[in-house]
Amino acid sequence: MKKIAVLLVGLVLQFFTVPAVAQDLLARYEKVIWINQIKQMGAAYEDGCKLCEFPVITGDDETTTDPGIYLIKKKVEDYYSRKYDTPMPYSLFFDLQQRKAIHEGEVPPPGVKKEFSTHGCIHVESPHIEWLYDWADEGKTVVVIQGWRTAD
Prior knowledge:
The protein has 152 residues and is α+β, with helices and mostly antiparallel strands.
C-alpha cells in the first residue's frame, strides 16, 4: 500500500507539477532537497529560497529511483554498503527499507550520463554532498524526487 502511495505521488509530481504545488511544498517545509530526474539536477531550498543547485545521477528503468516525497530518516557520514561492497560517504537515507540514499558518488558529464546509473540511490559529487550532509537535518529535511529518469 505504501509503495502505491509513493508511486501515485510520483505520478502527480511527474505529470501535474505546477508552480503552485512546488511552492506549497517549499512553503510547508523549512528544508527541501528537490531532485529532478528528467534533468538529472538537484537543488537545496531553505524557507522557499534556492540555496544551491548541483548535478546528480539516479537509477535507470532497471534500478529505479522512485519519484515521491520522502524524509531524511538517517544520516551516516561513513556508510559502507556490504551489498555492493563499496563506500557510500555522506549518506542521507530517505528510504530505510530499500536502503536508498543521497550519497557521494560519481556524476558523469551530461553527454555520457545515459551510460551510467545507480542502484536506486542518488549520487552527488564533492563539494556539494559534504555541504548537503552538513546542512540537512535528520527527521526534518524533505526529499522530493520528481519524474522518472529518461534516456538522458
